[in-house]
Amino acid sequence: MDKICRVTVCTGTACFVMGGAEILALEDRLPQDLRGRVILEGMACLGLCKDRKGGHPPFVRIDGEILAEATLDRVLARLEARLGGETLA
Ligand code: FES
């Protein structure tokens, strides 16, 4: 059975306006071999924007791992590393 990743995109105000909204389009950018293997969800403020030690918004959680300053490309690269997807451009 193929491994599945859960991607939680913070949709709180700080993350949303700093790029989180773009990350919500993740499913449209998934390479074919990762489709159906990613559970995408939004969640109100993860509470990380108040503690600058963890980096800057937008924040994304991938199976419990926090990715700060997340971009769509960085999330895709992390998924590729975790799920062994095809090479992403
Ligand atoms: S708005 Fe994203 S962690 Fe607070």
Give a brief rundown of this model.
The chain is an alpha+beta fold and 89 residues long. The chain contains 3 helices and 4 strands; from the N terminus they run βααβββα.
Structural key phrases:
89 residues; Glutaredoxin; binds FE2/S2 (inorganic) cluster; alpha+beta; four-stranded mixed β-sheet; 4 strands
Tell me the layout of helices and strands.
Elements: E1 5-10, H1 13-23, H2 26-29, E2 38-43, E3 60-62, E4 65-67, H3 72-83
Parallel strand pairs: 1-2
Antiparallel strand pairs: 1-3, 3-4
FE2/S2 (inorganic) cluster binds next to helix 1.
Kindly describe this structure:
It contains 3 helices and 4 strands; from the N terminus they run E-H-H-E-E-E-H. It is of the alpha+beta class and 89 residues long. It has a single domain (5-11, 19-83), classed as Glutaredoxin (3-Layer(aba) Sandwich). A 4-stranded mixed sheet has the order 2-1-3-4, with helices on one face. A hairpin with a 2-residue loop joins strand 3 (60-62) and strand 4 (65-67). The model has no long low-confidence stretch (mean pLDDT 92). Bound molecules: FE2/S2 (inorganic) cluster.
